[in-house]
Structure formats: structure tokens, C-alpha cells
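Table 4 source record.
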Amino acid sequence: MMWRSLLGASRPACRSSLVPSASSTTMRRFVPHLGRQLLLMLLLTAIAPNLAAAQAPKGPPPPSVIVDVARERDVSQQQSYTGRIEAIDKVAIRARIAGFIKSRGFEEGAEVAKDHVLFEIEKEPFEAALALAEANLANAQAALILAQATFDRTTPLAERGTASQATLDDARSKLSQAQANLKAQEANVVKARIDLSYTTIRAPMHGATGRAAYALGEYVSPTSNPLVTLVRQDPVYVAFPIPQRDLLQVRREGRNADSVLVRLRLPDGSTYAHDGTIRFAEVVGNPGTDTVTIRAQVPNPERLLVDQQIVGVTVVAKKPERKLVISQAALMLDQKGASVLVVTKERKIENRRVEVGEQLGPDIVVSNGLTEGDEVVIDGHQKVRPGVVVNAHRSTDKPAAATR
């Protein structure tokens, strides 16, 4: 009945058009309600696409990575080697005369000045020998005086014929013997004085003493082992072998010892505070290792360097060069070599092969594959792959959540 009313179905003719029927009353009540339903349906149809779009799930955001910028900086060319500290002067102190050690004038391991008394050997036998030599010298001097007087008297007598020629020859011979004996006795006195001076053993230079090999009262002689070793500690040498190819390259480039300096790395990994200078290059190569030994002189005021100590040696050019560097954290290594992940202008990842040079602390030199200003990934490598769009952050404003 409802739809018939909506479609204008015929009403009974017996009803007057002026009197509302039940069906017409119902239609008048239904029409406003139907209009509201149609309006609601139209509104729902219009906003349904927007609601669907709003309720549709969104894709994941681009991964975040930390990047560093390839930049140029002044770099001093350098090469690293392994060297050994050598004392410039190292003296084994020996006894030069035989005798018993009377005293020792140093503490083992202490530094002593030049001419400091190290040992004293008993003097009495040598003082007696000197006194005897001086007495013999005086006797020789008296004998020479007598021989000279005899010769002086005999000579005019022989000229007048009152003395034979044999007597003159004998006087001349005794004079020559007395003169020779005097020289011998003078030499004995000098030797006795030298031997007496050897009873006091002094330091020939400023240096540090080693362990004393003999105790007080022990007998020593020139054939004994060294009494102690004295080592000069400042400055010292550092000797290190370099390959022949490195030496050839340096010489072809026309560089000399004045164009480089030598830096040391101590056994604990720290850098030594004083730089050294090259003093000597061996003229004969080592056939077993094809190397040439270089020796540099290094100050040692704090006594941190010890004879025969092994240290790292870096030869650094004094004049720096401009080179492109990146953080070592950006470097990836595989069987084909080194590569980095570069963030392009479109914010996409690109895998690029590079050639690298020497390491400079946290940085490394790049000789080929990058240009200044390129952004390379240093954190977040595992979250990206070539072609992926990323959200890049400079290392200076690194977000806390970024991980590698």
C-alpha cells in the first residue's frame, strides 16, 4: 500500500477529494522521513571514498641513516715502519790494570756525569811501582852525568895521544848507554804514573749505569768481563728498515732527509712527544729482506726511550698536500675491494667502489671514486640497499635512535 501511494495509485471514487483518507495521511507522514533517508544515503556516498582513503594503512617511513661528507684537508704523506731504539754511545767499562776493587762510586741504574768516579782499584802497589820508577830515573840521571864527564875528560886526552883510542871509544859507549837508560827510566816513570791513574775508573761520558758485574773486594784485570755498561740516553737513535721500493720512490721525487720528520709510537700505543730527524741511510741493503736500514736521531729528555726498545716509526712529509678524506666508518670491504654507500641528490642509496690510501686517525684518504661534498653512510648500513630512498642525517646532528 505504501509504494502504491508513492506511485500515485488510484483512490476509491467514493471518497471525496476534500476529505483526507487514511492512505493520504500516511503518505504525508512518510514523505519527510523518506527524504531524510535519501539525503543520508547521498552524503554517505559522497564521503565514502574519503573515509576509505583515511582508513587505508600507510607504508613504512624511509629508513634513517647517518652520513658524513667527503671533504678535502691538508694531509702530510707518511709511511709507517717498525724500528728499534739504539743508544748513540754505549761503553763497556773495563779494568785496564790488575787489582782488587776498593770502592764503587755509583748506584746501579743511576745517571752519572762525565769524569764521575765509578770504581777505585787499590792504589798501593802502583804507588810503590811509581816510586821505584822515579828512583831508577834518578839513578839513570846520575849515571848519565858521570858518563858525560868521563867522555868529556877522555876526548882531549885522546887528541893529545895521552889516552888510547879504545879508552875514548869506551867512554863514548858508556855515555850512549847512560843516555838510553835515562830515556828508559823516564818511560818507566810515565808508565807507572799511567798505571796509577788507571786505579781510578771514571765515566768517559754522561750516561746511565747498568748492573755492576763485580762486587767490592773482587780481583779484576784487563781480561775480566766489563765492570759495568754506561749508556748515553739523550739523544738516542732509532733504526728501522724500509723497503727498497720506498727508498727508490723518495729518491726519484727528489726528497731528502730535511723534507721529512720521524714520529714514534710507543709500545702502549701513544705518540711520542718529540720528533726525530734522519741522520743516516745504510749504503748496503739487506739481501734477505730487500730493505735498507735508516737511522734517525730522537731527543729523549724524559728517558722514555730505552736502548733496544721496539717502537713504531712513521716518516711524515713536512709539506702537506690537499687530499679527499672520509670517515673510516663509511668503508665496506669485500673480495672486490673497498666500497661506500653514497646518498644521491634524490636521497637514494648508491653503492660506489673507491680506492683508499693511508689512514689518518678516524679518517681515511680516498684517491678515486668520490668527489668533495659526496655524502657517505657511516651508520645504518644494514638497514638500506642500493636504490632505497633514505632519510639522511649529518653526523653532527645524529639522532639518538640511529644504529648500525
